[in-house]
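User: Hey, my collaborator sent me this sequence without any context and asked if I could get a structure. I don't really work with proteins. Can you help?
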Amino acid sequence: MQPNNSSQAYRSSQKLGSSARQTEAQALLETARMMDAAIGGESNDAYRAALRLNWRLWTIIQADVSSVENPLPEEIRHNILSLSVFIDKHTVNALAEPNGRKLRVLIDINRNIAAGLMMNVGEDAAMADAVDTQPQPATANAGGDIVA
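Assistant: No problem. I've predicted the 3D structure and written it out in structure-token form, which is a compact way to encode the shape of the chain:
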């Protein structure tokens, strides 16, 4: 079974230099922005298009998390899959009975997950900077000389 074009685009963007977390956070925020713009709008088409885009994004996330090659710990994978099942059901309900409050739930989920992903990226970068700036302890080499 070949991956779909969305999945291929997602993976190729990772290879071009943006980290997986940054890519996921950006995608989640963009779909949240589109859903937010659709709330209270005159166009039912914009509402449905935003929901469908979010649904496709979460389908890609489901496929990635379900992969045996996914490096996430089992508990996190299970939690993400549980959340994606909720999003599937909620999206079907929101498509069947359009309502801005139903979009707000999905917007909040996307924004919270994106914030967590971006926080982790920042923490990783801060940790790497802290490690790089820490003085290295002096050690003794095989001859007993102190090496800085």
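In plain terms: The mean pLDDT is 79. You can pass these tokens on to your collaborator as they are.
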